[in-house]
TrEMBL record:
Residues 22-31, 142-158 form the Uroporphyrinogen decarboxylase (URO-D) domain. Homodimer. This is Uroporphyrinogen decarboxylase. GO terms for molecular function: uroporphyrinogen decarboxylase activity. HAMAP family: URO_D. It is an enzyme of class 4 (lyase).
């Protein structure tokens, strides 16, 4: 494996000097792009789009054709893992993802096993390989998975939840059952991410999207140890090149020091914490990714540029270890031209901060 022609993203994750701050966006291939909507229409459904390697490759590359982004991220969904466990994933218009067989009975939980990613999730590995070929070593490819706790939320609730009633009942009444789900899922995620790396992913990210819904004590017991277990099992070098890992807990600003201690290369930040404060707290132990409020992209180009500069200046000029991103996924209602304004502002201002000229 050789580094891409533009390896700025990888160097930033490894805290190496960069000429500017690299930028990519969570959910950068999505419904805000008309070309994505057209490809999804041709696919027939979101799930069919995810499971078709050629179409997954097509939508992964679409934002790179529009914008000067510094990384591509595999187009897939975090729920492919529980789907491969036999829970019966389906999507209902207006309701989001649902599972036909949520984990509510003890026998079903005890029977849960980790799927073989090369068999049950082969379509993802085929997509990773196809995207790497199509990128032709231009920018790095990011692989990803959901965290065990976030996946467990969907697996127990049966879909998205506003109050996490079912999983929190299990967490407090039958923690042994939840720990079993988390343990099996951690093994599944580790194998899944390593298979993505073996297929060509050059960095990996773990999305702990619902970890912030936990109490401080519960996070330390039901999310963090399983994140650490996964990170410890990840392939860290492929083809002579380091494969960095990013951990993102939405709402996890209270626990940055604990996250930094699990061995990941970078922490993703949501928009509720000042990135300068985050950097002071973790020092140079890890790189930081983030953390513009996605809502900024509904403002004018001048306001977008101003807010981007605020994030960059807060992190600190001449500083290594920063990957610019949103604090969560881009909204489907975002005007495509807003992303142009953001990427241009990040690149130009960070270059100016380093060199004193555009």
């Amino acid at each position: 494996m050789t580094r891409p022609c533009n390896d700025t993203f990888l160097r930033a994750l490894l805290k190496e000097p960069t000429e500017y701050t690299p930028v990519w966006l969570m959910r950068q291939a999505g419904r805000y792009l008309p070309e994505y909507c057209e490809t999804r229409r041709r696919a027939g459904s979101f799930l069919q789009l995810c499971k078709n390697p050629a179409l997954a490759c097509e939508v992964t590359l679409q934002p790179l054709a529009r914008y000067d982004l510094d990384a591509a991220i595999l187009f897939s969904d975090i729920l492919t893992v529980p789907d491969a466990m036999g829970l019966g994933l389906y999507f209902t218009e207006g309701e989001g993802p649902r599972f036909e067989r949520p984990l509510r009975e003890e026998w079903a939980i005890r029977d849960l096993t980790a799927p073989d990613p090369w068999h049950h999730l082969r379509y993802v590995m085929d997509a990773v390989a196809e995207i790497r070929r199509a990128l032709n070593n231009s920018v790095p490819l990011i692989g990803f998975s959901g965290s065990p706790y976030t996946l467990a939320c969907y697996m127990v609730e049966g879909g998205a939840s506003s109050d996490y009633r079912c999983i929190k009942r299990m967490l407090y009444e039958r923690p042994d059952l939840l720990h079993h789900i988390l343990s099996v899922t951690a093994d599944a995620v580790s194998a899944y991410l390593n298979a993505q790396i073996e297929s060509g992913a050059q960095a990996v990210m773990i999305f702990d999207s619902w970890g912030g819904s936990l109490s401080a004590a519960a996070y330390q017991e039901f999310s963090l140890p399983y994140l650490q277990r996964i990170v410890a099992k990840l392939i860290v070098e492929s083809g002579g090149e380091r494969v960095p890992s990013i951990v993102f807990t939405k709402g996890g600003g209270l626990w940055l020091e604990s996250i930094a201690d699990i061995g990941c290369d970078a922490i993703g930040l949501d928009w509720t914490i000042d990135i300068g404060e985050a950097r002071r707290r973790v020092g140079h132990q890890v790189a930081l990714q983030g953390n513009l409020d996605p809502g900024v992209l509904f403002a004018s180009a001048d306001r977008i540029a101003d807010q981007a500069r605020r994030v960059l200046d807060s992190y600190g000029p001449h500083s290594t270890g920063h990957v610019f991103n949103l604090g969560h996924g881009i909204s489907q209602f975002t005007p495509p031209e807003s992303v142009t304004a953001l990427v241009e502002a990040v690149h130009s201002h960070s270059r100016l901060s380093r060199t004193g000229s555009e």
